[in-house]
Amino acid sequence: MATETETAEEYVYYHQGGIPGRRPVLRGSKAYQTFEEIPLVDVTDITSPSFEARKAVADKVAKACAEVGFFYAQNHDVPQDVIDEIFAAIKEFFDQPNEEKMKVHIHKKVGFRGFEPLFETKLDSKTRGDMKESFLMGPDKTDAAQELPFPAHTGESVNNWPPNNERFRVAVTKYYNHLQRFSKELTRTFALALGMDEHFFDRMCTFPAGYVRPLHYPPQEVSGGEEPGIAAHTDFACFTVLCQGQVGGLEVLNKNGIWISAPPIPRTFVVNIADFMQHITNGYFQSTVHRVINKTGEERYSIPFFYAFDDEAELEVLPSCREEGKEYESVRVGEYIAHRFKISRTKHPDKAQVKHRGSLKERWGTLGRHNSGRSNTRRCRAGNNNHRRLEIDRPSIAAMAVFSLIIINKAGGLIYQREFQAGLQKLSTNDYLVLAGTFHGVHAITRSITPRIPTANPNPQTTSTPTTPSASLSWSLPEPGQPKTGIEVLETDRFRLTCFQTQTGTKFLLFTDPLMTNIDTVMKKVYELYADYVMKNPFYQLEMPVRCEAFDRHLGTWIRGRA
Ligand SMILES: O=C(O)CCC(=O)C(=O)O
Ligand SMILES: [Fe+2]
Fold it and tell me: Is the shortest distance between the CB of 247 and ligand 1 below 6 Å?
């Protein structure tokens, strides 16, 4: 019989692209070759007049981003006095009593700007929360102190600045301006690193979303268990430029599930790839899991700058990174950022702003838009093609996920149920049957309550008594030629249920990430596969459970191929 130590596997748990995951810890002969330290790249030449010099930096960046997802940027040009001043100002801010800081709590503004106290966010549900406090500021069209590409608008600031603390506001804004500039320069290095025109990203960086988030991590009790300052996660924007104070605690997860320390190195930034960049490079650049645990016994301060593109920019896989025959979805930057803020801050009043996502019919109209230009594709021709892609770290971002599919027959019976993602919460068979029957009933009711709208009656009855206005109206469905649809979309923070009903009353229910933009393409493909492999199967009896191996196989292959 195997002993416990032989069978027990050790795992590291994390959130990657907004969804939970785990990685086995591999040692000895099972271990992969992977990084054991964070590479250092001298960025002196990122704006050099010599193309060769800029390209040499880009090649090193390409290697670091493909193999590690993190690098130290040494010799950046952000002045040390600007950095010293922001550290002094944030220390002074965090040193204040909590009541004072709570005056600018993030709930006091839409947009999640302001202060968040210790333990308020919880990236790992097994903990009491992340042991850090933070302050978030970002782009503000009304702030003339920001280097805006247009004259400052009038109106109220979206940032949530502490009152009577000019030093903090000035120091943070100055740092923000430098980091916006430095990051835009880095986008050119990244473009070169990806084998593209240096200015490829410029059109997406006219008023880019960039956020400074000063952080304070009190020391955890050395004798206690591990309390994460920030639990294991990937960043969700494009890339992060992190300025660490003097105290360490940042760790980066390698392919073997081993935490690699990224200690502060004076006068360097730590740059890491985030989910957008992983998405648009088709996984060539890694959005690598990291965390902070402050076991140093000292107060730790750090200042990440999260860089994204313009809110309106569509994130599509870059032409140089596409693969023949694969389809890719696009996501809009602003929408994705809002979603990611919301899912980890469920109490924020801004959550009430549920977006209109358009009816299924409207969205069929977008078909093809996201699929254009898919032919003639090739693999990423990044700076140095010798780097091996790290397949294990390539989940697509959460916005791409198809979670599961249910098919309901016209009598409300469950005839097919399939999950496409590991780690989903499981329902019992009975619960699935109840879900199918209940949805069927509610769908029918919502069809029947489709409101009719008043139309002028062309032949009002002539009566001798005066008529009420309604008596001269008749009532009709908004589009009389169109059948009533019933519920098409139900949505929570974490998933969207989309229903497509065929002419004969069969319903297809797809559970996906709420941000997935072209569910219609997926739904259409599911229906085509159903028509080809279920309806045309001579052994299939209509309305009965679907047990067709060819349908399962083609569906599985197609859904996996999209990821
Ligand atoms: O404080 C650090 O060193 C890292 C912070 C971080 O990972 C984050 O804010 O996403
Ligand atoms: Fe992070």
Answer: no
Q: How many angstroms separate the CA atoms of 559 and 510, rounded?
A: 12
Using an 8 Å Cβ cutoff, are 397 and 17 in contact? yes
Q: Are residues 135 and 247 both part of a single domain?
A: yes
Residues 432 and 311 in one domain: no
| Tally of domains within the chain | 2
Residue 368 domain-assigned? Answer: no
Closest CA to 206 of 286, 268, 271, 148: 148
Ligand 1: nearest atom to the Cα of 290: 7
300 lines ligand 1 (CB under 6 A): no
- The residue whose CA is least distant from atom 8 of ligand 1 is 304
Q: What is the pTM of this model?
A: 0.67
343/488 same-domain check: no
Domain hosting residue 20, numbered range: 11-350
Q: Is 254 in the pocket of ligand 1 (CB under 6 A)?
A: no
Q: How far is CA 360 from the centre of its chain?
A: 22
Spatial contact of 213 and 136, defined as CB atoms under 8 Å apart: yes
10-residue block means of pLDDT along the chain (563 residues)? 48 80 88 95 98 98 97 98 98 97 91 90 80 96 94 93 96 98 98 95 94 95 77 93 97 96 97 93 94 94 96 89 79 80 58 34 24 30 37 40 90 90 75 88 85 58 43 60 77 83 90 77 89 86 88 88 68
Check residue 506 and give its pLDDT. 92
Q: Which amino acid residue places its CA nearest to atom 7 of ligand 1?
A: 291
Q: Alpha carbon of 359 to those of 34, 350, 362: distances in Å?
A: 46, 23, 5
**pLDDT (0 to 100) of residue 481:** 61
Say how many Å lie between the CA of residue 15 and the centre of ligand 2.
11
Among 350, 367, 384, the domain-final residue is: 350
Q: Which ligand is in closest contact with the Cα of 121?
A: 1
Residue 327 sits in the same domain as residue 413: no
> What ligand is nearest to the CA atom of residue 294?
1
**What is the token pair recorded at 482?**
């169109």
* Structure confidence at residue 551 (pLDDT): 93
- Domain match, 340 and 416 both: no
CA-atom Rg of the chain in angstroms:
27
Nearest CA to ligand 1 atom 10: 235
Q: What does the DSSP 8-state code read for residue 215?
A: E
CA of 290 to the centre of ligand 2 (A): 6
- Tell me how far the alpha carbon of residue 2 lies from the centroid of ligand 2, in angstroms: 39
Cβ–Cβ under 8 Å, residues 454 and 474:
yes
Of the residues 320, 350, 380, the one at which a domain ends: 350
Q: Which residues surround ligand 2, an ion (CB under 5 A)?
A: 235
Asked whether 302 lines ligand 1 (CB < 6 A), one says yes
Say what the pLDDT of residue 474 is. Answer: 67
Ligand 1 geometric centre to CA of 270 (Å)? 10
